Amino acid sequence: MSTVDSYADVRAGDKGDTLILDVLARDQAAYDLLAGALTAEAVAAHYALDLTGPVVRRLLPGVRALVFVLPGALGGGVTGSPVLDGHGKALSYHLLGYRVPSRLDGPA
């Protein structure tokens, strides 16, 4: 097993109290692997946050990216959250540690 960090970079952004994660695969094989492993349900379980709605996943095959929207993940957002990381930038690193089967492991 490998982690997302082996196959992609992750960027985080925010819109209000919604966390937006962009997973940018390094090549087509990595995109195919991550598109199979990183479901909306898997990402929701990995973060285990008290969200205000379901995690939404969008596939962008033209740029080999996956976008995840986690509503309510930032506890009020930049101006309303008492947490240190109101933008959620550090939360991108958490997804890099998600374990996925390596290309040699075969199907999960």
From TrEMBL:
It comes from the Bacteria. Pfam families: AtuA_ferredoxin. Residues 5-100 form the AtuA-like ferredoxin-fold domain. InterPro entries: AtuA-like_ferredoxin_dom. This is AtuA-like ferredoxin-fold domain-containing protein.
